[in-house]
Each structure stands twice: as C-alpha cells, then as structure tokens.
Amino acid sequence: MTELDMVAFCKALSDETRQRILEILQAEGEKCVSDLVDVFNVSQPTISHHLHFLKQANLVISRRDGKQIYYRANQDNIVECCGILFTKFAPVHLDLDELIEADKQAKLQTGESVQSGA
I need a labelling partner for 24 at 20 to 30 A (CA). Which of 5, 17, 32, 35 fits? Predict the structure, then answer.
C-alpha cells in the first residue's frame, strides 16, 4: 500500500456511517444497497455515496447480479491497512507486563475489582 492509500483508508473510516457499513459487511457478509438502506433508514443515494467512498479506498469489493450491486468487505486490504497503521504508530517496545500493571492501577483508582493473574 502507498501513503495515499493509507490516507484514503483513514478518510474512509473517519465517518461513523462508513465504519458501521464496514462492520456489517464484515459480520454479515455480502449486502446490496437496499439491504443497507433498510438498516440505516437513509436514502439509497446516501448509502451509495458511502459505498463508493469505501470502494475508492479498496475497503469493499462489488459485484453486479442483474440490476443489483452487491458489496462485501475487502478483508485483505483492511487487515493490511490496520497492520500498517499499527506498525507505524504503535510504540516500538510493547511490554505486556507494564500494560497489565497500568490496567490494574487504573482499575484500583476507579474502584473496579482487579483479578489476579490477569
């Protein structure tokens, strides 16, 4: 992926509706525009606009069946983009013991119970 693709990925996911569309496609599989219109209770052009945006970022794949266009998540590209973002912005050194201890401390401060061994 190029930097431009990463920018498109981030822009595509900057909208809550597009995030939700992608979540639905990942969880439920292929959907046509009318399926998504029913879920979101918005107009067909609005859903089509969001799907076009996701397609431009290579986050969804479409196929035509007669007059219907079906969309599905492009899982390979989603995983690749997430991996690139993680490696680009995650701390160089991740100490799981430090993260677990910080979580325990935060829970103690808020009064949540802390389980040992977790």
Answer: 5
